[in-house]
Specification:
By secondary structure, the protein is an alpha+beta fold. The chain contains 1 helix and 4 strands. The protein has a 4-stranded antiparallel sheet with strand order 1-2-3-4. The radius of gyration is 12 Å and the shape is flat.
Length: 60
Amino acid sequence: MTEFCFCKSSYSATSSECVEVARNVSSTVAVRDSKRPSGPTLTVAPAAWNAFQAELRRQP
């Protein structure tokens, strides 16, 4: 399996209190807590991640 390459949002503060997302594996999007990089990782299908992001953008 390819190792995930996580990126932190450019909107996050320097205190590492955010999520990191890896999109370098074509069939999976991985999400983890930046404060616990060795902790659990949530994986979702790219279509589910895209729908989640679209819903966030619709929020006021």
